[in-house]
Amino acid sequence: MVAVDSNVSVPQEADAVSLDERKVVITHLMAEMGSATRQAAVGTADKETKETEDNEEAEETEGTEETKDITPAQAKQGMQCEVKNLYQKEDERGRCTWTEKYPDGLEEAAENEITARYAILVRNKKSFDSRKKLEIDSVVVQSPLLKEILGKVLKDYPGVSTNLNRLVFSAPFHPFVHRWEQFTTAKDAQEDGEAKEHLELLYTVLHDELKDIIAARNDYTAKEVITFEHLWTIYQPGCTLFTSEWGRECAVKFVRGSYYEHNKYGPVFGMNTQILDWDGDKFGFASSQSLVLAYTGTMAIADLDAFPLKFHPNEKAIRAKLLKRGKLFEDFHGYHYKAYKAFALGKDYCGNTIKVTVDSRIIIDTYAFGKFNPNRLPHLAPLKSKSNNTPEFSDESEDDESYESEYYGSDDDDSQGYGSDNDLDTSKTRKRMPLSHDQLIYASPRLKGYALKTKQWLEFFVDSVSDIQWNNEAFDSLVLPADQKELILAFASSQVKYKDTFDDVISGKGKGIILLLSGGPGIGKTLTAESVAEDMKVPLYMMSAGDLGISSDEVESSLTKILEMVAKWNAVLLLDECDVFLEARSAHDLERNKIVSIFLRTLEYYEGILFLTTNRVKNMDPAFQSRIHISMEYPNLDAAARSQVWKNFLDRGVRHELGEEEIATLAKIEINGRQIKNILKTSQLLARHKDMPLRFEHLKTVLGVEGRL
């Protein structure tokens, strides 16, 4: 090292001085010192500034020797290869800080190699119960013999894995309270030996701790009452709960429960439950929730909003009812055309569930429901879950079969489109393992589908779904020439049966049938489409131009969805009063031209039956003429046709006293079919008001008021 004159002022903390300042100091030193000192300083400066100039070997060695003695403060951040321990320390206000000082008064760890030898560790803590000094905080089971036995006793209990190296149970020991009978049975059944001794040890520990809570539970359940604080004791994971959903009785599987503070209801006991549902492809368990609000004193168990089914006074009858409905629910998978008369459940614009009154025919189709409403379809857990979060322990019979797969075999690949379950050709339907009785009892009371009258995706209650009462005389009552009726029906029925036998040059094009019905109002155009659908026993989807929207984008989106739904359901589609689409395009209305172009292009790929009705076809766009397979013009009704219409309406259960001469008189009045129906309806109301059958005088009164006589 080079000696430095003590009179020269040298910085004491060189690491706190900037690089430029160091150079100034070094320059000053060089001016005061000799050449040897100058060389050493230059070597130090070169080292600190990391410049790699080629110096003489002696200078380089001298500079290196001087920088070896670096303090920890001079080391780069994170580069010192050591572990530094800090310890938590509380100040007088209870705030935590970190210090290098090792805490005073620490004892050796309670659990070590010595305690690891014991079969059970019982960890106690000070009790605030006036009846005892200590209470158990937790129990650590270390015995492999105990773990094996507890694996059977606590099988499928949520949150418990008995194969862990460190198996800890914390107070208040819910698993043992819920499975106490199984635990005591296992203890009594165990043969003498080391495992028996270990079981006796654990039983003694837990019995002393749990005897009061178990005695209280047994006392409450014997009286079929329960307090809010003891609710958890009767809800065993995997048990069947009886509850109601929108006034419909149902059963759910209890998964787990806990007490907490609800932001609206205050203290509650919340229950996570599961219900059997269908997502259009498979059956599974959907998550649901139930709440029991806090109450004082005791309450009858059967008065709770959701309680174990075994406490129901009519348990056997309820099980039979739920099982019957569950079988119906299972049968309704896939596509079904049914009638419905009750309220259903829908969603408002804010996503809230609302009641919707439905009195019409419906389509049950969960697959389509999920496709057009993906956010409303629940996520389903497998029927047989290997997770502890979905317990399979049941208080039912033990005949629940274990399935490797819900399906066995498949006739064809249905990975695209609606899948075979939604195909009307039942020969293609996948074979599905039937659900067991223990699964069917949890079936949801709701089915997902579409209301044809209100055009809404809704959830319908299984109990209110019924078969359609078909009007077998609808097509016969249609007032049209026989050959014309036969042609229309032949076209429509053949399209349903053989729609895949003819295709365009481009795959998917030209598979549909389009029929144009034109003529004045009230002469049977709409009735024709309705009668064809009724005779074929297929859905009728009615829409008008207003249902599609006003902009080209709205029309394209709406039309694409509707045509897809209708084609998959093999439904008859009726586009009523479609003049806006049929009129020839002009150069002055570009938006309408765009709508017509979209309509034409979309129809090319439609695979179903489409009836178009219009009051005029004089100015039809040429592009439409080439796409229409049958065009029929309906003449105005003559006297004979009107007479037949009068008779058809009168024969539909109307109590009347009209003779042939009076009907012939009515037929001479030049009105259309819709007007005849309205006049009859009004006259019938008049007759009912007077509590007499319909007479000619009632019709004359109504016709006179309307100025038709």
From TrEMBL:
The keyword Hydrolase applies. Gene3D superfamilies: P-loop containing nucleotide triphosphate hydrolases (3.40.50.300). Residues 511-638 form the AAA+ ATPase domain. One of its GO terms (molecular function) is ATP hydrolysis activity. Residues 36-76, 380-429 are annotated as: Disordered. InterPro entries: AAA+_ATPase, ATPase_AAA_core, DUF7025, P-loop_NTPase. Keywords: Hydrolase. Residues 53-64, 393-415 have a biased composition (Acidic residues). Pfam families: AAA, DUF7025. The keyword Acyltransferase does not apply. PANTHER family: AAA+ ATPASE DOMAIN-CONTAINING PROTEIN, FAMILY ATPASE, PUTATIVE-RELATED. This is p-loop containing nucleoside triphosphate hydrolase-24.
